[in-house]
Amino acid sequence: xxxxxxxxxxxxxxxxxxxxxxxxxxxxxxxxxxxxxxxxxxxxxxxxxxxxxxxxxxxxxxxxxxxxxxxxxxxxxxxxxxxxxxxxxxxxxxxxxxxxxxxxxxxxxxxxxxxxxxxxxxxxxxxxxxxxxxxxxxxxxxxxxxxxxxxxxxxxxxxxxxxxxxxxxxxxxxxxxxxxxxxxxxxxxxxxxxxxxxxxxxxxxxxxxxxxxxxxxxxxxxxxxxxxxxxxxxxxxxxxxxxxxx
Length: 246
Description:
With 246 residues, the protein is mainly beta. The chain has 2 domains: 2-67 and 131-163, no CATH class; 73-124 and 175-242, no CATH class. It is built from 3 helices and 14 strands. It has helices at 2-15, 38-44, 217-223; strands at residues 31-32, 55-63, 67-68, 73-77, 82-84, 88-101, 107-117, 119-144, 148-150, 157-177, 181-194, 208-209, 227-228, 240-242.
């Protein structure tokens, strides 16, 4: 629409003889921060006389870069809630499977447990409020009689500015809350038996059962012929490492 008007104005300018007017200073530029459109700003420069038959339109727009207005905000979930932080385990039930960790003499046992995470995290879609400055001129004109274009210098303005606002998609991110997240029946491997001290043959020591294991550590050690990767060794204060259910 603007291009059509500009094209039409160019034809008028070249086809009709302009009316001679007294030179005048151009309108001072307007800086708006209230959300007016360029067309509204140009219209406001004609106030208070709307009966003069003058028309106006913004021209020569120059746009600044979009810049964020504050931090992004979450909108809708993009994933399911899940635990965040280091979990604690309770209610461990062992299933009779035993392992050695990288050939260690200690014994690990497989089973299930309830894991309680201190926080809950959930992946969300985010959006970002942004704004940019638009600089433009206001062209004012009217047709007098049959073919005379009138565009007085005193009604023109240059360097008007307004601030345009928009909302754009932002990258997905996690929202973390201080709400505990509980997983029931999680598959776990736990340290169940610490081996006796074999450094002093005269005092070999005894097996020490760990983390609620009530079976025979000697029997578990004999059965634990396999290994699990050493990177899966328990690292938290309850000696629990867990694997996804799949």
